[in-house]
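Reopening this ticket.

The earlier resolution said the output was attached, but the attachment link was broken on my side. Pasting everything inline this time so it's all in one place.
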Amino acid sequence: MTTTGPATTDDRPRRSLTARVRILLWLLLMMAVALGSVAATTRSILLRDVELRVSGLLAQEAGEFAHFEERGVDPETGRPFTDPGRLLYVFLERQYADPDEELIGLVGRYGRGPAQIIQPPRDIPVAVPLHQDADARRRIYDSPDSTGILHRAAGEIRWAKVAVARHGSEPDAAFVVAFHPGREQAGVDEVFRILLAISGVALVLTTGIGWAVAGRILQPVRLVRTAAAQLTEQDLTRRIPVRGRDDVAALAETFNAMLDRLERAFAAQREFVDDAGHELRTPITIVRGHLELMGDDPAEREETVRLVTDELDRMSRIVEDLLLLAKAERPDFVTPEPVQLAELTADVYVKARTLGDRDWQLAEVADREVELDPQRITQAMVQLAQNAVQHTTAGQTIRIGSRADGSCVELYVVDCGPGVQPQDARVIFERFRRGTARRGARGSGAGLGLSIVRAIAEAHGGRVRLHDTEGGGATFVLNLEEARP
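Inline output:
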C-alpha cells in the first residue's frame, strides 16, 4: 500500500516583475551600456593620442639626430665629425628631453662593454630608467630594428635608434631616444576611472529619476488595472480620469470607451434575457394551463391540442429567430454572390403578394448586377413586407422597389398605414420591441423581425433606414452602401 505525501512544490503563481521595475531595469541597462561605451571609447581615443604623440616624438628626435650626423660639424675643429663618441656628446649636450624621455648615446659593441652618454644629466620619473638598465640597453643596441617597444617588469619603453658608424667601418655606436609612456597611460586610466565614477553617480540619479518618471507614466495604467479589478457585472460605471493628450491618455480614453461598450452590452444582455424570458414564459403558461384543464371530451381535447400546438409553433419561431440573430455575429452569416437586382426585386414582389390582400405594386427596379446574399436579402425584404401587412388593412397599397445611385443600392418597402410614432422609431429595430400603432394580428409577433432585418443589412456592410411616407405610412429602406457593381 502506497501513500502520497504532501506536495513539496509551491503551486502558487509566481509574481513577475512589475512594468515599472522592468522599465527601470531596461533604462539602467541602456544607460550603463551607453556610459560604459562612452568611457571605453574615451579611453581608447586618449591612448591612441598618446601612441601618436610618442611615435611622432620618437620620429622627430631620430630625424633631428640623422640630420645632425649628416650635416653637423665639430665646433672645435670646424670639420665633420669622425669620432662617434664626439658626435653623440656634442648632439646630446644641445638637447633638452621631455620629463618621460631619455636621449642616450651608446658607444662600442656589447662584447667590449658599451659606454653610455646622457646629456644633460637628470632624474627620470620612472622606477628604473633606461640608463640604469644594462640589459634593456643591450637588447635595444643589439636589435636589428630602428624602432620598437620594450616590455619589461619595470615598465614599458618605446624607443627609436639611429646607428652611427666610423667612415668605412661597421656601426659601433648608436643614438637612442626612449620614452616611458607609463605616466601618461596612468593619466588615461585615471580619466577612465573618473568617467566610470561619474557614470555610477549618473546611474544612481537615473535610478531615482527613472523610478519617479516611470511611476508617473504608468499611473493611468495602474488606474486601468484597479478599475478592471473593481468591475463587476452589476457595476460598470467606474471610469478613469483622462489627463493630457499622450499615448497613456489615449489608452485611458480607449479603456473608458470599452467600458461604455461593455456597459451597453451588459444592459442589452440583461434586457434581452428579461424579454426572452417574458416572451417564452407566456406560451409556456398557456400550454401548461390548457393541459392542466383539459378534460375527457374529445372536442375539448382536440381544441386544446390545437391551441398547444399553436403556442409551441410560436415558441419554435421565437427560438429560431433568436438562433438566427446569434448566427448573425458569425462571418459566414451571409454568402455574397453576383445577383441581378431587377430579378431579385421581382422575386421579392411575387413572394410578398401572398402575405395578404393588399394593393401590391412593383414601383421600380434597378437594372444592375451587385454582390449580395440573395436569400438573406429576400428574407429581410419579405419580413419588411410582412411588417407592412401587419400595419395596413385590406386594399391598402404596399409598394416594393429597388434603385441604384452610384455605388449605393437601395431596396425598399412603402406602406400607407398609420406610420411609426417618433418614440417608436428609436426602438423598433431592437429585439423584443414593438411599435405602439399596430394593426392586424396584434401581439402575434415576438418583436424580432426588424432586428433580423437590421442584422442582415449590417452583415452586408449597410444599414436599414426608416422615414415617413408622403401622405401617411412608413418607408423601410435597405441601404447597402458596400454593394459593388
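Reporter confirms the inline version is readable. The radius of gyration is 51 Å. The chain has a mean pLDDT of 81.
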